[in-house]
Write a structure and sequence with these properties.
The chain is α+β, with helices and mostly antiparallel strands. It folds into 3 domains: about 160 residues, 2-Layer Sandwich (Phosphorylase Kinase, domain 1); about 200 residues, Transferase(Phosphotransferase), domain 1 (Orthogonal Bundle), CATH 1.10.510.10; about 100 residues, Serine Threonine Protein Phosphatase 5, Tetratricopeptide repeat. The chain is built from 23 helices and 11 strands. The longest helix is centred in the C-terminal third of the chain and has 40 residues.
Length: about 625
Amino acid sequence: MTQPDESDKTRVRPEVADDKTHIAPSPHAAPQADTAAPTHSTPPEVEDNPAQLTNYSAAHNRSAGFAQARELVKQSQTGKGLLLKRRFLLEDVLGHGGMGTVYRAKDLRKVEAEDPNPYIATKVLNQDFKDHPDAFVTLQQETAKSQILAHPNIVTVHDFDRDGDTLFMTMELLEGQPLDQLIKAARNQGLPKEQVWKITRDLCAALAYAHQRQFIHADFKPGNIFVSDEGAAKVLDFGIARAANREAQKHKFDAGQLGALTPAYATIEMVKDEPISFADDVYALACVVYEMLAGRHPYNNRSALQAYEQKMQPKRLDVLTAREWKALSHGLALVKSERCASITQFSDELFPKRNPLLLSIAVGFAVVSLAGAGWFGYNQHKAQQKVQATIAEKVTAAQTCFAEKNFDCAIEHTLVATNLDPLNSVATQLLASAQRAKELQVNDDKIRELIAEAQHCLQQQDLDCAALFLQKAEALGSHNSLVVSFHEALSVARAQQAQSAAQRQEEINAIIAQAQSCLDARDYSCVINLANGILERDAGNAQAIEMKQAATSAQEQSRGLREKINRLMADANSCMEKKNYSCAIAKAESALELDANFTAASKLKKNALDTQRKLKESGFTIK
């Protein structure tokens, strides 16, 4: 790698942000105030005495490299760059990614050693990520992942560290362009086929290497691919790569939880948040290859789920042969079962090995490389042995999990095995069995929840509510023991409820008969009280409601009639006091017309008639 030049405008970040946060590289750009820039971290002892920058001997401290490093420290104290750990001098912002901000930095240890290329890239965690309680562990995990994935086509990560509250990671500084910029420049035209195939081979090598180590990138896209000035491709941002099984992630926190998938390169399974597999990276890679060739996305930047729902098909590319188009289409398949299961399969279909005749001819011209080829074959053999050992290990672990009825664990282990070898019948059958058992387990859990709700309704004597939850549970499994048992309990409750209802009806009928007797006797208060007693037990009892209404109406009519009679009687008594016996008789008769059985009116009338008769007999004039 050549030493960066201040005039170089093509140096690009080693981690690229998504399309919405893309930052163009600028060697002279100062860190933005709103980014997660590191704090100015120059300890007091360095500010007072720059010679304490290292522990080198006094003789070395007089070297030109140390003098230059000391001068850079002094400049950082005046605001020219930010210093981390008294070693890494951050100069320019190269870009922003999902986890933080990437800077172009000078490693002062390299400056002291007079290294002609002292530049590295430094990624500083942004505020949201840094505030997470497991941020330091996460940074270590990303570094560890990237160091495990040491490959010429994967960006090299050096180390991670902390300076106060600032968490950062150091990595190689790349020179060239991110692939998304190259594609954008060739929009709707595409890159030269020869260049695309060179990049594709590099990407296949990188992903196959990662998959052998059970890492799935999970956010593979042009923005996470860097093309060097020499045309070599490097895969970036394995920080959100997922282990193929959770067992590989010892700490509970997964950096991928803070990363957002890019829908345009996400499979149906990823959009639905289902378990990921190596085939997800195959789909993303195929989309990238198509985009390089055509200058546009195969499904117009739709997610695989949207493309499937809209029945979209990628347009045939004329630049490809029939065999090449078939291979690319196999990788672009929206349905997982119709897609290449591994990167190796996709690569072999796209770049098939030579036939035996051509290979034998080629051997004649390549005798000098036999030793190298033998070494390559030996390494391939060792890698295959390691893969087979991993498959056997995962199948055994899955069988143990299955026996313990830990079906999630069994599925995770068999997914690893089937991803590494889709034709492994033991792993395939075990995966299917674990998935079926998991479905039954989930089904049983749902039935258990429904029956618990039904039992709660039963305790509240709400049998209709209980029957509704039972019906839902029966739809999931009518022969389930919980369902059968509760069905019997509900039947018993219904029988008891019917018996209680019959007994209650007999009691109500007796009260209604008593109320009818009161009504016949015009004891309306008695009727109303008995009707109210019935309605407290059965608020909708029609007979009680009807009798109460009749008694209330009769009571109102009786009250009005009584008031009229009382007025007539008052008038009759007034007439008697005035000795107007004819008036008294008339008033009493009017009262008797309203109530023939009114005794007081009968007595008053008789008294008035008797008095009137006696007066006539004695010769008095009667009014």
